[in-house]
């Protein structure tokens, strides 16, 4: 499939064998491996979701043999696969492929650690899926709340714990690698304030990975001890079930930003290119990513407003949750303002990015409802919450992922997909998504609880409607797969810079040579200098407004 | 210029109109008995306050949603590139605007937070004279104990109208969450730790209780009902329950009484009834001696041996039409002697003659 991939441009095209892919330490190949693997698990998670929707379409029957036990396994695996095996690794893939190119580096700081991270993803995923073979799937939800995760019979919880530990190590190693790469590998002139916003977002994400995941590691190890060594951290008379929740959400809330910040970065890359205008408020967007990351560590208990934690904790956590909404609002306003007086080109990446803004906006606004403690008490653990986080993680993260894929696929493989199919993929996904998830807000408010295998007749119409929406979305993904097959088999040559973008990765061949830059590029200006006359200009010949040295090629020394 | 001012005016008017419609809901549920299509019935005093928060936030967020979406659509139409090679303007941002759209959301969020905090004070302020009901969650049933009267009930909670009621909520096994949508209250039930919440019902009727924390395979069947009735009706119900309990206990043999204790302690009646109605598991009324059909089509007679096996190893022979979700009760939970008592009790509920 990826045979056309060039190992080294300067020495002619060398077809990569399967050995090259397995033993590779090159950031671009590892990036593609990450994205391919993650996409496979997107399909797995999607099928699990469709099975859930099939079960919920009718009330009172075990359709397809999905009993309530099996339904609990479906929800657990769906959440786990989508979070740990699709969104996290696909972003690791993007960061791997794009960030070294964007900052003018030859590779990641630690190429072999990078390969280890990828293979730990594979090991962790195999462990996570091993229950299918060993007989016993996890059934305590992706949150693995104690003590049910401890008391749940079978090996399901064990495969989950071991799997998530290994996946966690994969992410921590990846995070360390990204941090060092961004701090130490930037080329001459690539100051922090000239870094593309995707690099900013990646940096904050990496910091969150390294700081948040250890809390999960500890929490699930203790669950393992309680299960097998007779300890009573979270269970039994002396155990504290709330301690698990505190540890889990100390990881779990930053995790939400791990899943969405890279999508913020992707959209911030795409908008200026297709609006032919610099991003509005570069520093505001960069700093808001950083502040979201920082404040994100002080909001975790808003997942626990009904848990019985001391009442006096609720107000500070409500306030911090409201505050984290501010930088998010700032981003949305800046993206919208980027369109103002631009010249907009509606290619597939742009269409997906605009879809992202609309849907993420809804996800962000429903977050304000949930921040308010009295209302949250009513809708906690209902479909209102399910709607909220799917607007953030599907409408946000996954729309961002597809925007990014359509943006960078031509760079990764040198081939172009069908723009029409990509737009059909968008509209069908967009319609199916809203059919599935918008009614969930109202269903939750009216009393439809989360994680129910059966909702009774009062919710049967709305559930059937949502199931139809889910299948529309599922169908849409087949268009994407067909588009990819078409691209690899018949797709036209994309060219080095089909979008006329100014960031560094587009100044190289498509796909880029193995060592990226023959000589390190020298950066003399910010990444989004659009809105100036086309074509390379003589360095130093100041354009219009008296700013100096707007070299079209961003000052790559030749 | 004049045209664009006009346009801005009509946009603002449109946005204000939408917010106004959202605000219509605000305070609407103050009228007794009216139920809004957006919300479950407002059956407790606090639910009116909670609904008002909802309508307030709905108004604010709808305003910002339509503002951003309107701008997006407007920009998409107005700034569409007409031919290849066009460029926008080289404009990097505006500090004043950044400050405005940082401060405006911050102020709005703080106002919402202050308003919410005030309502939260009401929620956390438990009245001193409240009637106490102890609520215990257990896979997969809710137990209620009316502290003042010593009366117990399962699944169905009776409460008097217009009287503050405090619930002491606890779990026996894993975390459950006690939720009455019509009261807008929800409180997790933790193992070994008691938490309290309270409400005062303002409407009579029956309202669903749901478990809102994933607690195992029977989670979605962990339902119940609150029956709100007048104070006299409630007192009559308490009296009736007291008499029923006495009469039942007097009719039983000593062994059957001990069996009933074991059954109540182990929470068997979460899934099994004694009145013939079907829950998760089979009813015990007339069960003894019955012939049942198993999943594989074979038949089994319900005798001492079969009931013993169904307690020790519940999934060995599962009767058709029932899910295989009963937990195992080994000798560490119920001793052999206790099982004899349990059998005695089940037998006391009537036997069925079959060939």
Task: Summarize this entry quickly.
The complex is a heterodimer of chains A (558) and B (355). By secondary structure, chain A is mostly helical.
Report on this model:
The complex is a heterodimer of chains A (558) and B (355). Chain A has one domain (34-548): Cytochrome C Oxidase, Chain A (Up-down Bundle). Chain A is built from 16 helices and no strands. Chain A has helices at 18-23, 27-57, 68-102, 111-129, 131-134, 148-151, 156-184, 197-228, 241-275, 282-295, 314-339, 348-371, 373-379, 383-413, 419-446, 460-490. In chain A, helix 2 packs parallel to helix 4 (111-129). The relative contact order of chain A is 0.11. Mean pLDDT of chain A is 89; it is low at 1-12 and 535-558. Chain B has a five-stranded mixed β-sheet. The longest helix of chain B is centred in the first third of the chain and has 34 residues, at 45-78. The N and C termini of chain B lie far apart (96 Å). The model of chain B is unreliable at 27-34 (pLDDT under 50). Chains A and B meet through helix 3, helix 9, helix 10, helix 11 and helix 12 of A and helix 2, helix 3, strand 7 and strand 9 of B.
Percent in helix of chain B: 40-55%
CATH architecture of chain A: Up-down Bundle
Largest sheet of chain A: none
* Overall number of domains of chain B: 3
* CATH fold naming of chain A: Cytochrome C Oxidase, Chain A
How many distinct helices of chain B? 7
CATH architecture of the largest domain in chain B: Sandwich
**In terms of structural class, how would the helical and strand content of chain B be classed?**
alpha+beta
Instruction: Point out poorly predicted stretches of chain B.
Output: 27-34
Radius of gyration of chain B: 29 Å
Indicate the proportion of strand residues of chain A.
Answer: under 5%
Mean pLDDT of chain B: 85
Low-confidence stretches of chain A are 1-12, 535-558
- Portion of residues within helices of chain A: 55-70%
Counted up, domains of chain A total: 1
- Helix/strand-derived class of chain A? mainly alpha
Q: Please name the CATH topology of the largest domain in chain B.
A: Immunoglobulin-like
Task: State the shape of chain B.
Answer: elongated
Strand content of chain B: 15-25%
The total of helices of chain A stands at: 16
Distance between the termini of chain A: 33 Å
